[in-house]
Amino acid sequence: MGQETPLVGVHRELGAKLVDFAGWSMPVRYGSETAEHVAVRTAAGLFDLSHMGEVEVRGPEAGRALDRALVGRASAIGVGRARYSMLCAPDGGIIDDLVVYRLADDSYLVVANAANSDEVAAELAARAEGFDAVVHDASHQWALVAVQGPRSAEVVAQISDADVPSLKYYAADPARVAGHDVLLARTGYTGEDGFEVFCRPDAAVDVWRAAAAAGGPLGLVPAGLSCRDTLRLEAGMPLYGHELTRETSPFEASLGRVVVFGKPDGFVGEDALAQRRDAGPARLLVGLLAEGKRSPRATQAVVDPSSGETVGEVTSGSPSPTLGRPIAMAYVPATLSEPGTRLEVDVRGSRVPAEVVALPFYTRAS
């Protein structure tokens, strides 16, 4: 079925439904995906994310090399902190969206989507030429276990030596978890508080079992890719291959804030993105709140009811367990992107009314 993570045996023990995802055999669900979703919103979920790509960039000019390669300013990230960024093509299209961790003055860890990790590693290596920096694809040297949800800090505090309350959002520190040296990060992709444990592959089972044992009494459950998708959709977080593609720029995705112009060495795609910024996006990513029970799905047409014309396309859609309504994200003309705009989605031949709403659909209580 594809590559297997170090936790595949655990997933089989738990009765997970395994599917091929980006060339990896991954758990899509263990039982009810809705129950897993609700557990993450109300308690905690335990995820295997070992399919993600990890690229190490080290050297005296590692920060400059990443400034040149990415749209953001990696050199401005504080040691022990992280930042969301993107790798763009010369024409401004998105090759991948990434999280960049600065581990030391001259050491960074770039986390890429599984389907793009090989290309990201190759592009970073090519763009680092001429800088005193070394790029190493370390994907197979890392496993990744995530604990997400409002009780995740309680779980992690029980199994690590870290001062969990002091670890800021989008930060990472070395720690001991379940007796192993790890990198403990406080980031996430669910809209909830959450932690990622980057560990060596031979430590993954110990980390997983420790988190499951500590979290079980608190309501933690193992959670698969299916609920991860509905969680990130509710939180308005883009998914590569859906909201983000080689045909999409950060500005269309309403993520222009991550692009930093005027860096000393520039960056690949800067001229094209400056033109897109100045011209203004012709289409924008919006949230859609659909009426009834039929849920919009990716690739379905968005229709302007006043003209009957197709004006856009759904990128992601699903019933929302939290809202109790079907929700979707879609690209529509900028002229139809204002919240309150009435549109329709062609759901298998039926026109489903939908209203444009501001993203995210869900924001956790602070």
Automatic annotation (TrEMBL):
It catalyses: N(6)-[(R)-S(8)-aminomethyldihydrolipoyl]-L-lysyl-[protein] + (6S)-5,6,7,8-tetrahydrofolate = N(6)-[(R)-dihydrolipoyl]-L-lysyl-[protein] + (6R)-5,10-methylene-5,6,7,8-tetrahydrofolate + NH4(+). InterPro entries: GcvT, GcvT/YgfZ/DmdA, GcvT/YgfZ_C, GcvT_bac, GcvT_C, GCVT_N, TrmE/GcvT-like. Residues 302-322 are annotated as: Disordered. Keywords: Aminotransferase, Methyltransferase, Transferase. It comes from the Bacteria. Belongs to the GcvT family. PANTHER family: AMINOMETHYLTRANSFERASE, AMINOMETHYLTRANSFERASE, MITOCHONDRIAL. The glycine cleavage system catalyzes the degradation of glycine. This is Aminomethyltransferase. The gene is gcvT.
